[in-house]
């Protein structure tokens, strides 16, 4: 039960921090957050935990905040800024992957105590990097397009929760499908489906939980 309660607290802290970032730094803060969250999510995803009777990876919450950030950008500044943020996150993740793989090639000093730990974490990232990068790019673009389409067809002063949940839940489903199909290619079907299902359930919960935070962000007065 500790993990579940701590996970809920963890989610509240993550979503609150993005609001603080946006409140202080405005649109620039959201761009920075997206770059940071894509990197942190791919580090956290290497840790497995038990949640709600399921084995799941960490990283789903911080990854979900990237979708919240693009939705805020889309809502308040338009589709083009949201697309720019997607590409920023994409290239940030590529840069981190390349730099850490190069860093691991240095021969550590005899007094070094972190090489093994770094190798354990970052040697796994290339295995999931392709799946993660493609899933991120495809799902974020779909999120931006769906959000913009709903926004254009429904009154902009209403149905914010429809835009947010409709775009994020569909894009997260696509994200999970692309990522698990690539990262867990060759895994037996029953195991693959369990990974796919549990991952999406967690992302679905995260997507629903970020809605109140989008309403708060919409009230912040930052210039166009």
Describe how the helices and strands are arranged.
Elements: H1 2-25, H2 27-44, E1 48-51, E2 54-57, H3 60-77, H4 79-103, H5 115-122, H6 125-153, H7 160-183, H8 189-209, H9 211-219
Helix pairs in contact: 1-2, 1-3, 2-3, 2-4, 3-4, 3-6, 3-8, 3-9, 4-6, 6-7, 7-8
Organism: Pontibacillus halophilus JSM 076056 = DSM 19796
GO molecular function: transmembrane transporter activity
Subcellular location: Cell membrane
Short summary:
The chain is mainly alpha-helical and 224 residues long.
Structural description of this entry:
With 224 residues, the chain is mainly alpha-helical. The protein has a single domain, classed as Arp2/3 complex 21 kDa subunit ARPC3 (Orthogonal Bundle), CATH 1.10.1760. The protein contains nine helices and two strands; from the N terminus they run H-H-E-E-H-H-H-H-H-H-H. Strand 1 (48-51) and strand 2 (54-57) form a beta hairpin. Helix 1 runs antiparallel to helix 2 (27-44), helix 2 (27-44) packs antiparallel against helix 3 (60-77) and helix 6 packs antiparallel against helix 7.
Helix % is over 70%
Q: Largest sheet, described in full?
A: 2 strands, antiparallel
What spatial order of strands do you see in the largest sheet? 1-2
Number of strands: 2
Mean pLDDT: 86
Order of helices and strands: HHEEHHHHHHH
Low-confidence stretches: none
Q: Return the CATH class.
A: Mainly Alpha
Q: With helices defined by DSSP (H or I, 4 residues minimum), what is the helix count?
A: 9
Question: What is the CATH architecture assignment?
Answer: Orthogonal Bundle
Strand content: under 5%
* Total individual domains: 1
Cα separation of the termini: 44 Å
Instruction: Tell me the Rg in angstroms.
Output: 18 Å
What characteristic shape results from the CA principal axes?
globular
């Amino acid at each position: 039960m500790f993990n579940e309660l701590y996970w809920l607290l963890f989610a509240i802290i993550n979503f609150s921090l993005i609001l603080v970032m946006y409140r202080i730094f405005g649109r620039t803060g959201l761009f920075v957050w997206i770059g940071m969250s894509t990197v942190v999510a791919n580090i956290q995803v290497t840790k497995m935990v038990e949640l709600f009777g399921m084995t799941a990876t960490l990283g789903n919450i911080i990854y979900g905040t990237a979708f919240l950030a693009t939705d805020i950008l889309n809502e308040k500044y338009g589709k083009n800024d949201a697309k720019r943020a997607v590409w920023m996150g994409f290239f940030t993740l590529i840069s981190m992957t390349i730099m850490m793989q190069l860093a691991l090639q240095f021969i550590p000093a005899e007094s070094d105590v972190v090489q093994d730990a770094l190798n354990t974490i970052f040697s796994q990232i290339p295995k999931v990097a392709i799946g993660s990068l493609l899933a991120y790019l495809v799902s974020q673009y779909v999120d931006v397009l769906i959000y913009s389409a709903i926004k254009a067809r429904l009154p902009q002063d209403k149905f914010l929760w429809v835009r947010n949940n409709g775009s994020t839940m569909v894009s997260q489903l696509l994200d999970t499908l692309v990522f698990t199909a690539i990262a867990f290619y060759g895994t037996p079907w029953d195991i693959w489906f369990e990974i796919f299902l549990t991952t999406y359930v967690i992302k679905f919960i995260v997507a629903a939980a970020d809605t109140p935070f989008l309403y708060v962000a919409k009230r912040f007065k930052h210039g166009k």
